[in-house]
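*** Query protein ***
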Amino acid sequence: MKVIVNSPPETHKLAMQLASILLPGDVISLEGDLGAGKTHFAKGIGAGLGIDPALITSPTFTLINEYQGKYPLYHFDVYRLQPQELEDLGCEEYFYGRGVCLVEWGNNVKDYLPQNYLRIVMHKTGLTQREINFYAYGERYQKLLSQLEAVINNDSHGN
């Protein structure tokens, strides 16, 4: 599924729409170049889970930040990690835990991600415009994308 957003507020809204249908145990790989809007998207996910977006920062130097909301949000930044280091962090406890896992730069550790997850790839296509591509790995995430598409369509029709 592909979505074009034209501004940071639209990116935030899309992430909140996704968060509204996430469940504990969901794992999201968030990918894109520097400045593509990954952390902004993460703030939207957090807001959708009832977490103050101002609290959400890129965990580049802490590797993982944990936030409490409707469900816990485990926000990883694996940009500087070697794949083995993710395993050393005890990632499986998070991936199969009671919260939502958001892994920025997940493409760097794809062999350590669960078999089933949602992959989101962000591309800068203009000053504030982004193309956001969603890829579902596994039945849960195929259903999730169908739900997301319905939420977006309902919202665009004013419902």
Remarks:
- Residues 2-148 form a domain with the Rossmann fold fold (CATH 3.40.50.300).
- Strands lie at 2-5, 27-32, 64-67, 73-77, 100-104, 117-124, 130-137.
- Residues 139-156 form the longest helix (18 residues).
- The mean pLDDT is 88.
